[in-house]
Amino acid sequence: MKRNNCFVYPKTVRESIEGVRHYDVGKEKLPSVTTILKATESEEKKLRRVLSMETNDEQPEALFSGLYTRVEQHLDEINRLQNRIVVLQEIADPE
């Protein structure tokens, strides 16, 4: 691969902080691109990634943290819709 000399790239040292890859750049410790992408991926992608892994008791529950919230939101929405249906049925057929 040909090196691009248009930019000055700082020296970096790769290290692991709490099991997450970071790069020591001068006075800063910056997370890797992969670390950032995993932290910002959607809940759907997290679920797919977890489901594609082999079942393992050591999987971190952090992967599921946002998933529980989303499921609760969907269940709340279902309850609201069911209540609306009941009200509409009572309006349509008052007995």
Protein described:
The chain has 95 residues and is an alpha+beta fold. It folds into two domains: 10-41, no CATH class; 61-95. 48% of the residues lie in helices and 16% in strands. The protein has helices at 33-40, 43-52, 65-92; strands at residues 13-17, 20-25, 28-31. A three-stranded antiparallel β-sheet has the order 1-2-3. Strand 2 (20-25) and strand 3 form a beta hairpin. The longest helix is centred in the C-terminal third of the chain and has 28 residues, at 65-92. It is rod-shaped, with a radius of gyration of 24 Å. The termini are far apart. The mean pLDDT is 77.
Question: What is this structure's SSE topology?
Answer:
Elements: E1 13-17, E2 20-25, E3 28-31, H1 33-40, H2 43-52, H3 65-92
Antiparallel strand pairs: 1-2, 2-3
Summarize the structure.
The protein is of the alpha+beta class and 95 residues long. The chain is built from 3 helices and 3 strands; from the N terminus they run βββααα.
Anisotropy-based shape: rod-shaped
Decide which structural class fits the backbone. Answer: alpha+beta
Oligomer: single chain
* Count of DSSP strands: 3
Average pLDDT confidence is 77
Which bin fits the share of residues in helices? 40-55%
Strand order of the largest sheet: 1-2-3
- List low-confidence stretches: none
Largest sheet: 3 strands, antiparallel
Distance between the termini: 80 Å
Keywords:
alpha+beta, 95 residues, 2 domains, three-stranded antiparallel beta sheet
